[in-house]
Amino acid sequence: MKLQSFFKKLSDAVSGFFAACANYFVHFKKGDIITKISYFIMGFGCFCRKQVVKGLAYLAIQLGYIYFMITSGVYYISMLSTLGTMQQGEVWDEALQIYRIQTGHNSMLLLLFGVFSIFLTILFIAFYFMSVSRAYKNQLLMEQGKHINSFKDDVRDLLDSKYHITVLSIPVILTVAFTILPLIFMILMAFTNFDQTHQPPGNLFTWIGTSNFSKILYQNPRWSSTFFKLLFWTIIWAFFATFLNYILGIMLAIMINKKGIRIKSFWRTIFVTTIAIPQFVSLLLMSRMLLDNGALNNLLLNLGIIKEAIPFLTNPNVAKVTVIIVNLWVGIPYTMLITSGILMNIPEDLYEASRIDGATPVKQFFAITLPYMLHVTTPYLITQFVGNINNFNVIFLLTGGGPQSLNLYQAGETDLLVTWLYKLTTQEQNYALASTIGIVIFMLLSSISLITYNMTSAVKEEDTFS
Amino acid sequence: MIKSMKAKRTIGNAFIYVILTLLSIVWVFPVAWLVMQSFRKEGSAFTPYFIPKQWTFDNYINLLTDTSKFNFPRWFGNTLVVAIASCILTTVLVLLTAYAFSRLRFKMRRPMMNVILILGMFPGFMSMIAIYHILKAINLTQSLVSLVLVYSGGAAMGYYIAKGFFDTIPYAIDEAAMIDGATKNQVFWKIILPMSKPIVIYTILTSFLTPWVDFIFVSVIMKDNYDKYTVALGLFQMISRENVQKYFTQFCAGAVLIAIPITLLFIKMQKYYVSGVTAGGAKG
Fold first, then answer.
1. Which of A59, A292, A431, B184 is least enclosed, having the fewest CB within 10 Å?
2. Residue numbers in A near B267 (CB within 8 A)
3. B194 pLDDT higher than 60
């Protein structure tokens, strides 16, 4: 993605937009009476020109939208600027001369439905422009005596040349409803003061601009020190979790695949079995085994290997090492499984030649195997790194973020940013802070991926056909 | 000279056998512990010794019959229903999306793929709370339907792996069929789909497994409605601080019951799993 081509695309988009706007008025001027009416009654141009079903659909959209706006949409959009003004509680009723309970506004629902209404409006505008341009096109087709698609033709198109609309409409709707809308909602929340003391329905919350971001970066020393500490640990963790797993996993795969090693499938199955066990089972068990009085310490004590219990999960520094090592248990078999096939693709003569030159297996690994693998699997490594920054399961199940620390705000020593986010929402209900952290994580991840994707040569352009 | 090389290789291999054996022990250790704990007769959460002194089947029997506090059979049924429904929905969504991005060319293709890429960089459960309120607004919280929607709602975004597979099928096949008069709809159902058995199986299995292992979304959506829990969250409850003393061995029994079918499925499908991940990874 070169900067230049980006600006070219941007300017194309802008000029395209203005051209479309100009066309809107030009077409109105050129249009006959039917086209002109369909500027106000959607679908009229279809309805009068043999596209009855399509016309009715457009009309239904328009009526539905107007009904929605009158009954609730206008109200929700107008409430967006304040997110509610009426607090729940007792108010003095002048007429009856008594206190009565008023229900008050729910800022949360107002924000949610406000976003939803705006979304519907955008959708409606898109449909409106579609119907207008369809009306004009129909007029032209009519004047030129050409064929206008009937409902049957449209259905046929939807199964062939416009198949992508058929195929993608349901996925798009579901993704919008369950990913994009919630995400927009949460992004907006980062600009509000929705924390413990502003919980709807009892209390209101409102817009406070970007002060959450400045608080987390420098203004609130407790937040910012926690944030930077966890950020630092998150990156250390992601680095070790990704690359240690990667290298050791490849080594394991090489050992299993080495010529002369028997019962390969037996070894492989042993390791693969541990991937298949659900993480919440294996990791929870590990966390119980690694307790100060857990099975592992007992075993080691009884065998006389250690004199005192090792604080696997209770000492901050030991706990950090523990999670990285336990993550090896989770991750090595996975890398082994994925890389086995790729390893076999490395040309055998490379090894042959280096052996004649007297290279040791260790040297071969770092001079041939690793560079080759890195070249082929860079995208895999990037997704692994991103996945580890967001690796919720291992930390949450193993240490729960602990050991707790008084220096950190609502977090433990091994908490990643993402588990901190989880704690802030479920325990602390500080949604504003949680959303802010989510956005920061997003910015971190997207810049890492952008930089690495641009630097790597392994990301091939997919073969194009039209 | 040749003899010494052979000797060297034998020693090297022996060394590798030793390492592999040691590693296997490390990897099997927790699993073995789990299985042994599930048969332990002594109550209490932890014992200071590794191998149980008395063995019993009671943990399994209690887990399946004593439903007064923890209704494991019911959770199992819930999970099965959710898994089947979300697996069907997810598979259809993923395959259709992947087909569109792999085989069809339209104006919004690139932008849509980029948007999905960007969306994937937000932490997954950042939107959890919002989803909860959306479901509440349409009166669907604490129901199994909502779980199905949550598991398959964003499923289309995981189209990469299937697309990677579709990309490897030569486009000439599509063209040949279209010259013979097939529509794109027919090409998908009659040509591409039958050729993509591995990826179809992969998608079905992975989506079937999700409800069995997720405990976060369930806990947000179901809150304290024990009857609607899935096995993962239910088992999770069993070893919470107040229950762990009494229910730890039953937790182990439940974990074994869940882990066995998942493990068997996974070992069966690992071939598809690998081809799926690598095909998706190399193409981006």
1. A292
2. 269, 272-273, 276
3. yes
